[in-house]
């Protein structure tokens, strides 16, 4: 059983923790992409919020502005933005990671009139030139944030955000290891709720809550109860709905590890560096380029493939579920390659196309059950 505040933060936009933080004078910045260094948003009375649209309904207005061939995540976020449901946020940081996100940024800037808006350019390559460029873009973003929110612009302030975010990442890693290293002590749905809580709650409040939960989890005895037919690695595009993973796990497909956007792929892996000697912007750039990459980093596919295969072997999974948002071109290309190349490495793959709002439950359930049967489970 997860703490109520975890479930509430995953299901809502403005949680009680955010309300309390803002009431005390804190300000919250939403960010749309995992390549935004959230360390810059966790300093000096600021807190980061990973953008999502829980409880989304019809999005006719956004559809008329963006078109139906943009992914439903971006359209539902725009609909909520136009309806004023992100009023609790004091600004937004975007990355032009794909055409859909760029169109969302254009509409957000024109129609939403946010109090603070920034666009962070991120390279598509991973080499020394890209590292230097990304480092400079991160510094430029920091200069804009520090000026807008009257923060001290010196490196010490950035290191404050790095240390705080690192602490949260390390706690998530310790919790996650209790899911995949041995017999699972958490379900995939529970781990996603924990991840969403950490991504949606001011770090000063999230860290002690995660510490308490980790201690409780360690002191509990025994593995996760229930009928689990197979261990699964879940990979794919933006996913912030625990009901999707719950649907998978209801069939017996236990998600013991994940590498999808808005999950632990974004949050694990601390920034390595020494406050006394390193450039904070350079160590930030290196961390975000060296972690498990997104398909937008097209030249990094071989490393991405091998990392996913290694994750599958470490967690002793029986198969991989590759979920993809409809109309997502980056995952559409990567998905074809991953499906082929992971199978060549002896890793069975089920590929599921989905919308942001959970639908087609019967079809998904049937396909997952057939996949488990093909595994002999």
Number of strands: 8
Average residue pLDDT: 95
Largest sheet: 4 strands, parallel
Q: Give the N-terminus to C-terminus distance in angstroms.
A: 27 Å
Describe it.
The protein is an alpha/beta fold. The chain is 51% helix and 12% strand. The chain has helices at residues 4-11, 16-23, 60-66, 72-82, 99-112, 128-148, 155-180, 188-200, 203-219, 242-250, 264-267, 280-290, 301-314, 329-344, 361-374, and strands at residues 27-31, 46-50, 91-94, 117-119, 230-236, 253-260, 319-325, 349-354. It has a 4-stranded parallel beta sheet with strand order 2-1-3-4. Strands 6-5-7-8 form a 4-stranded parallel beta sheet, sandwiched between helices. Helix 14 (329-344) links the parallel strand 7 (319-325) and strand 8 (349-354). Helix 3 crosses helix 4, helix 4 runs parallel beside helix 5 and helix 7 (155-180) packs antiparallel against helix 8 (188-200). The longest helix has 26 residues, at 155-180. The chain is globular, with a radius of gyration of 20 Å.
